[in-house]
Amino acid sequence: MQKSYSDSYAAAGVDVTAGYESVELIKSHVKRTSIPGVIGGIGGFGGMFELPWSDYKNPVLVSGTDGVGTKLKLAFLMDKHDTIGIDCVAMCVNDVACSGAKPLFFLDYIACGKNYPQKIEQIVKGVAEGCVQSGCALVGGETAEHPGLMPNEEYDLAGFTVGIGEKDKLVSGEHLKAGDALIGVASSGVHSNGFSLVRKVFNISGDTIGVHYDELGKTLGEELITPTRVYVKPLLTLMESVRVNAISHITGGGFYENVPRMLNSDTLAVIEKDKCHHKPIFDLIQKVGGISEHDMYNTFNMGTGLVIAVDSDKADEAVRILTSCGEQAAVIGEIKSGEKGVELV
Questions:
Q1: pTM flag (> 0.85)
Q2: CB-based contacts of 17: which residues, under 8 Å, 6+ apart?
Q3: Could you write out the DSSP letters of every residue in 62-108?
Q4: What is the DSSP letter of 304?
Q5: Per-residue confidence at 1, pLDDT binned at 50, 70, 90?
Q6: Are 248 and 262 in contact (CB under 8 A)?
């Protein structure tokens, strides 16, 4: 007798009705992100956005894509999924803003072992919040159910954004020179990088994330799940008044990998560690893990999420503008002539 394959997709572990329910649950969150330029709504085969060409003389599109990495393990252990989407958006839009562009729209991709509509809603709620914080629209995405490829309770999250900028105002590093001041902007914590090391240091589990540390004033899990700071609006506000010569987003690879990315071949960034922003979580990671200072600065943001280069006579104004936008900002060093690289003194 020939085997029947009726309802075979559901039998294989893919719940199509759960997908429909997820779409209904996230509609209100997506609506929060609508901005001028959005065409249509979610549910189509492609997200549509009308580009504001008339606002620019020489418009350039700038794109970025990234994920959250193993920080997701914290979300699984804590069963907290409403902020991890902020991390995903921040990792993409911050990079675009560092080029001097304004993020326009964002798309997310969620791969899950099993589609739990309420969990998907919480993830997208965070994505929408990140979009609101950065002023861009969530125009589409994909939730893919992968039974057998990953555990039912787990998922992966990634995103993609497109921004626009005026060609002659993009931050390319061409104006960077010896004598420029370096401004550090505080991070909110570990952000979304270095979590493989963090998990190893603390032997992350359901028990260890619940441990309260006096130096943190909260549990380890509460500290580590803190979402990545979205710097888009403060950066765009700064660029309206001050020419920014270069920017480094301190992500994976810490200072030693990311700061040189903003430099020219004959410029050296000299950063004074004592003037950088301090976060107790990094002292704790270093102490518990017995990690060298060099490795800490080669892995983590150490409390500084952005390093911005401006003309030295504009440094005070830049700090004032960033502070007025709610950021913690301070002059932390300068650009000198020399072999391309970074010195931490």
A1: yes
A2: none
A3: EEEEEE-GGGHHHHHHHT--SSHHHHHHHHHHHHHHHTT-EEEEEEE
A4: E
A5: very low
A6: yes
